[in-house]
Specification:
about 450 residues
Length: about 450
Amino acid sequence: MKGPVSFGSWGAEPISDKLAYIQWVHDHKIPVEVYAVDAGWYGASVGAEDDPTNSWWKNRGDWFPSPVYYPNGIKPLGDALKAAGLGFSLWIEPESAMQDTKIVKEHPDWFFRQIPRASYQQWPFPYGTLITNLGNPEAREGITKMISSLVSDFGITWYRQDFNTRPEHFWELADTPDRVGMAEIRHIEGLYRMWDDLLTLHPGLHIDNCASGGRRLDIEMMSRSFVVWRSDYGYQDTLAEQAQTQALAYWVPQNMGLESYSDTEPWKESGPYSTSKNIYRMRLAYDVGYGVAYGVIPGAAGIHNEAWVAWIKRAIGEYREVQPYFLGDFYPLLSYSLSSETWTAWQWNRPEHKDGLAIVLRRPQSPFPVMPLGLRHLDPNAIYAVEVRTTYEKGLIKHMKGSDLAQMQIQLPKAPDSILVFYRQTAAGVFHGKPEGNIVTSGK
């Protein structure tokens, strides 16, 4: 399946701000599909992710809308998204809860017993964190019912399940000496069953497998879900973003990147915006799904820059054009590297359509202006229609013999910079003359 083109915001902020933002996006026809609400929407959570007052993680287990931020509940948000034609993703962490929260007080038998305080010294969250025992049928059924109710009541179309606590000590404490590993096995079986039940109860529901960003990428989880948040690291690190795409594409095709503007805010500048650096930052995260960070759509930051709005619409529009290619066969055209002095090049080939796409990225410190592309799985005797696109303007269609296309070289004078190469086998057309622009002859 294709992933969503998503945008979103933090959970602990007034619903009025969210509704205004959604209306702004709808009115400006930004081509996004799913709005995601992250943690902090529940209980007594206060402030941003790192706010120490009453943080999001301290309220896990109070799975009801914050009366401060959502005085009339979250249903009005789901209704507004449905009216705007947008999907709704909501963050929940049902396998973790804090000791004194509502669900633990009402159902203490749903949780593994507390582990010793000393065991928490190396954990991300302190003493008082509990783990749900999904191997307990009553607990699994109760948690499933709770999530199902939230899906129905709020209008959730993408259920985002996170998991931020290390469970091994709870499982070890629950095992008997002659049944080591059984608590873990039963819990994971219960997790799969819970997801199966949710997908049965809500046809069309999508599950976002988060788990602190990419910590549960096993076959069973992937068969039931999509990896929207593939890592908690990398969205301000353009090299890490590229490395994640290349490393995961081999075996986790259903994952998505996020454009990399976390360390810069070009929409606050006067432009022009179609610089090689800006386009490079958008293209380096293209994958089966695509995330647009808070602030990049300027209504989120209260910045009404119409020129940037027009530019980001074109940028997302290009992604929507290339998205279908990412379900094709993946070929890295260069070795995996985290060096800023190299290039990155990937190919997605669709044999059933006899076409494909290559994304070529010259990294910021690369001293090399030319790179051999080395496209794979081309018919050397066939004729291909080829478009080489540097900006968001479509390039001229050239016709090339497969043997020549396979040996084509790409020239990018600036660093960083990027280029897209579209190719499609065709029965008509003959290539005449030398390639132009960013195509360099093979040197034969």
